[in-house]
Design goal:
- The chain has 164 residues and is an alpha+beta fold.
- The protein has one domain: Alpha-D-Glucose-1,6-Bisphosphate, Chain A, domain 4 (2-Layer Sandwich).
- The protein has five helices and seven strands, in the order E-E-H-H-H-E-E-E-E-E-H-H.
- A seven-stranded antiparallel β-sheet has the order 1-2-7-6-5-4-3, with helices on one face.
- The longest helix has 22 residues.
- The radius of gyration is 15 Å and the shape is globular.
- The two termini are 20 Å apart.
Protein backbone atom coordinates (compact mmCIF):
# COMPACT_ATOMS: atom_id res chain seq x y z
CA UNK A 1 0.00 0.00 0.00
CA UNK A 2 1.68 3.16 -1.14
CA UNK A 3 1.27 6.67 0.20
CA UNK A 4 0.37 5.57 3.75
CA UNK A 5 2.98 6.79 6.20
CA UNK A 6 3.48 6.14 9.87
CA UNK A 7 3.78 9.55 11.51
CA UNK A 8 4.15 11.31 14.82
CA UNK A 9 0.88 12.28 16.51
CA UNK A 10 0.47 15.98 15.65
CA UNK A 11 0.98 18.32 18.60
CA UNK A 12 -2.24 19.93 19.75
CA UNK A 13 -4.40 17.26 18.14
CA UNK A 14 -7.09 15.50 20.12
CA UNK A 15 -4.98 12.32 20.08
CA UNK A 16 -1.92 14.15 21.45
CA UNK A 17 -3.45 14.08 24.95
CA UNK A 18 -2.58 10.35 24.95
CA UNK A 19 0.83 10.53 23.25
CA UNK A 20 4.08 10.57 25.17
CA UNK A 21 2.67 9.04 28.34
CA UNK A 22 1.83 5.53 29.43
CA UNK A 23 -0.72 4.99 26.66
CA UNK A 24 0.08 3.22 23.40
CA UNK A 25 -0.48 5.56 20.45
CA UNK A 26 0.00 5.30 16.72
CA UNK A 27 -0.64 7.59 13.81
CA UNK A 28 -0.81 7.15 10.03
CA UNK A 29 -1.25 9.71 7.29
CA UNK A 30 -2.09 9.81 3.61
CA UNK A 31 -2.29 12.72 1.20
CA UNK A 32 -5.01 13.28 -1.36
CA UNK A 33 -4.76 15.85 -4.14
CA UNK A 34 -8.15 17.42 -3.45
CA UNK A 35 -9.84 19.38 -0.69
CA UNK A 36 -11.57 17.07 1.80
CA UNK A 37 -13.54 18.21 4.81
CA UNK A 38 -13.66 16.20 8.00
CA UNK A 39 -17.25 15.00 7.49
CA UNK A 40 -16.35 13.57 4.07
CA UNK A 41 -13.35 11.75 5.54
CA UNK A 42 -15.28 10.27 8.49
CA UNK A 43 -18.12 9.07 6.28
CA UNK A 44 -15.72 7.60 3.71
CA UNK A 45 -13.68 5.86 6.43
CA UNK A 46 -16.62 4.16 8.11
CA UNK A 47 -18.36 3.16 4.86
CA UNK A 48 -15.46 1.49 3.03
CA UNK A 49 -15.92 -2.16 2.11
CA UNK A 50 -13.06 -3.03 4.48
CA UNK A 51 -14.67 -1.32 7.46
CA UNK A 52 -18.00 -2.92 6.58
CA UNK A 53 -16.36 -6.27 7.37
CA UNK A 54 -15.63 -4.95 10.87
CA UNK A 55 -19.18 -3.63 11.09
CA UNK A 56 -20.45 -7.13 10.24
CA UNK A 57 -18.60 -8.58 13.23
CA UNK A 58 -19.80 -5.75 15.45
CA UNK A 59 -23.36 -6.55 14.42
CA UNK A 60 -22.80 -10.15 15.56
CA UNK A 61 -21.85 -8.68 18.94
CA UNK A 62 -25.13 -6.71 19.02
CA UNK A 63 -23.43 -3.44 18.02
CA UNK A 64 -25.04 -2.73 14.64
CA UNK A 65 -24.15 0.29 12.52
CA UNK A 66 -25.18 1.49 9.09
CA UNK A 67 -23.97 3.85 6.39
CA UNK A 68 -26.67 6.28 7.59
CA UNK A 69 -25.27 6.11 11.12
CA UNK A 70 -21.76 6.75 9.74
CA UNK A 71 -23.04 9.84 7.92
CA UNK A 72 -24.79 11.07 11.09
CA UNK A 73 -21.53 10.63 13.01
CA UNK A 74 -19.64 12.50 10.30
CA UNK A 75 -22.11 15.39 10.39
CA UNK A 76 -22.09 15.61 14.18
CA UNK A 77 -25.71 14.50 14.46
CA UNK A 78 -24.96 11.64 16.88
CA UNK A 79 -22.55 10.97 19.70
CA UNK A 80 -22.39 7.19 19.18
CA UNK A 81 -21.50 4.80 16.39
CA UNK A 82 -21.67 1.03 16.90
CA UNK A 83 -19.71 0.51 20.11
CA UNK A 84 -17.93 3.88 20.09
CA UNK A 85 -18.91 7.14 21.70
CA UNK A 86 -17.60 10.56 20.76
CA UNK A 87 -15.02 11.62 23.32
CA UNK A 88 -14.26 14.90 21.58
CA UNK A 89 -14.56 16.56 18.22
CA UNK A 90 -13.31 19.66 16.47
CA UNK A 91 -14.01 20.99 13.01
CA UNK A 92 -11.16 18.90 11.59
CA UNK A 93 -10.95 16.03 14.12
CA UNK A 94 -12.96 13.25 15.69
CA UNK A 95 -11.92 11.21 18.73
CA UNK A 96 -13.97 8.11 19.53
CA UNK A 97 -13.72 5.96 22.66
CA UNK A 98 -14.73 2.48 23.69
CA UNK A 99 -13.34 1.19 26.97
CA UNK A 100 -9.62 1.92 27.03
CA UNK A 101 -9.35 2.26 23.23
CA UNK A 102 -9.45 5.49 21.25
CA UNK A 103 -9.81 5.99 17.48
CA UNK A 104 -8.96 9.33 15.93
CA UNK A 105 -9.50 10.84 12.49
CA UNK A 106 -8.33 14.21 11.19
CA UNK A 107 -8.51 15.88 7.77
CA UNK A 108 -6.04 18.77 7.50
CA UNK A 109 -6.30 20.90 4.38
CA UNK A 110 -3.23 22.42 2.88
CA UNK A 111 -2.57 26.14 2.77
CA UNK A 112 -1.48 28.44 -0.02
CA UNK A 113 -0.36 26.54 -3.09
CA UNK A 114 -1.32 23.29 -1.37
CA UNK A 115 -4.94 24.33 -0.81
CA UNK A 116 -6.08 21.56 -3.17
CA UNK A 117 -4.36 18.92 -1.04
CA UNK A 118 -5.51 17.32 2.18
CA UNK A 119 -3.60 15.19 4.64
CA UNK A 120 -5.75 12.47 6.17
CA UNK A 121 -4.78 11.08 9.58
CA UNK A 122 -5.89 7.97 11.42
CA UNK A 123 -4.58 7.06 14.82
CA UNK A 124 -5.30 5.01 17.88
CA UNK A 125 -4.58 5.04 21.57
CA UNK A 126 -4.89 2.37 24.21
CA UNK A 127 -5.02 3.70 27.74
CA UNK A 128 -3.37 1.62 30.49
CA UNK A 129 -5.60 -0.17 32.97
CA UNK A 130 -5.80 0.80 36.65
CA UNK A 131 -2.56 -1.07 37.30
CA UNK A 132 -0.82 1.00 34.61
CA UNK A 133 -0.59 -1.94 32.22
CA UNK A 134 -1.58 -2.08 28.58
CA UNK A 135 -2.12 -5.83 28.59
CA UNK A 136 -0.75 -8.76 26.62
CA UNK A 137 -3.25 -8.29 23.77
CA UNK A 138 -1.82 -4.90 22.84
CA UNK A 139 1.61 -6.40 22.21
CA UNK A 140 0.31 -9.62 20.66
CA UNK A 141 -1.95 -7.86 18.16
CA UNK A 142 0.25 -4.86 17.39
CA UNK A 143 1.49 -6.16 14.03
CA UNK A 144 -2.03 -6.92 12.83
CA UNK A 145 -3.30 -3.59 14.17
CA UNK A 146 -0.65 -1.62 12.28
CA UNK A 147 -1.38 -3.43 9.02
CA UNK A 148 -5.15 -3.06 9.48
CA UNK A 149 -4.81 0.66 10.32
CA UNK A 150 -2.85 1.27 7.13
CA UNK A 151 -5.39 -0.71 5.12
CA UNK A 152 -8.32 1.25 6.60
CA UNK A 153 -6.70 4.59 5.79
CA UNK A 154 -5.78 3.39 2.30
CA UNK A 155 -9.40 2.27 1.69
CA UNK A 156 -10.78 5.63 2.88
CA UNK A 157 -8.33 7.53 0.66
CA UNK A 158 -9.33 5.45 -2.37
CA UNK A 159 -13.03 5.96 -1.63
CA UNK A 160 -12.55 9.74 -1.49
CA UNK A 161 -10.45 9.81 -4.68
CA UNK A 162 -13.00 7.72 -6.60
CA UNK A 163 -15.86 9.99 -5.46
CA UNK A 164 -14.17 13.13 -6.83
Amino acid sequence: MTAIAECKVPEGSLLSAYAGGEAYTDCYSADVSMPVIQAQFVEAFYTTPLFKVERFFLRLASRPSTDVAAKELALGQTETFAMWRVENRKETELLLAVGRTRSWLMAKSGAGQDSNRTRLYFGSAIVPNQKGQLGFGVTALQGFHKLYSRALLHAARLRLERAK
